[in-house]
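Render this sequence as a predicted structure.
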Amino acid sequence: SRFDCIFIVRDVRDEARDVAIAKHVMSVHVKAGAQGDFAALGGSQRVNVPGAQLLQGRKEKTTKKTSQPEDEDLLLEPRELKDYVCYCRAKCSPRMTEETSAALAAEYVAIRQAVKQQVEENGGKKHAAIPITVRQLEALVRLSESVAKMRLSEDVEPSDMQEAIRLFKVSTMAAAKSRATGPNADLRFLSDDFRANVANAEAFLKQRLAVGADATTARLVEEAIALGHSAIAVRRAIAVMLSRSELSEHDRGNKIKRVR
């Protein structure tokens, strides 16, 4: 399978947030049941609006000044949005211009270079494979065309390309970085020697910090360097232990505490 955008969904344990989500889900079902009863009693039904007519109507409404920061009349109902998307897909096929093509190619090269530099800075192999390939470039093209299509534009403008890049960075790129700093962060793109250095640094941290003890990050790095560990390996070991919830950060990351 191929995906143009990859989003990481995290299940964060927060009682207040869990209660809010549960109430929202229940209210959605209660309202759905009420609407079903209303329709059964002969309530009015929504009439499908052609995409062009819907777009024109929305444009006219957005030109009117309103005293309220958010006008409910400007919000699309799910059915209206579905009709509009169907209309865009059927009636519009935007294409890249020479300007946007050149800019997107340059951005793709810059992203690959940034990823390569990050891998090398984290101790990875100099010629390791970069997880940003021509498939991601094709994804950026499709995203750019999709943004332009939502405007019913025949050409992909630079603003469409920039929005596509923004979506790509907050989804696929963010997901890649999340995996790189997860529990197995010390295993991705790392040489055997550096992986061993991280393991040794992690052993030092566990020996230096008893459960419940804390220390400044700078002090731990200094002590580790004095014992022959590299600063990069120590910071990577700290990141790994943080991802495993073995450590917790305090004072904006300047201090860490051994949790377990």
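Summary. The longest strand covers residues 247-250. Confidence is low (pLDDT under 50) at residues 43-47, 62-69.
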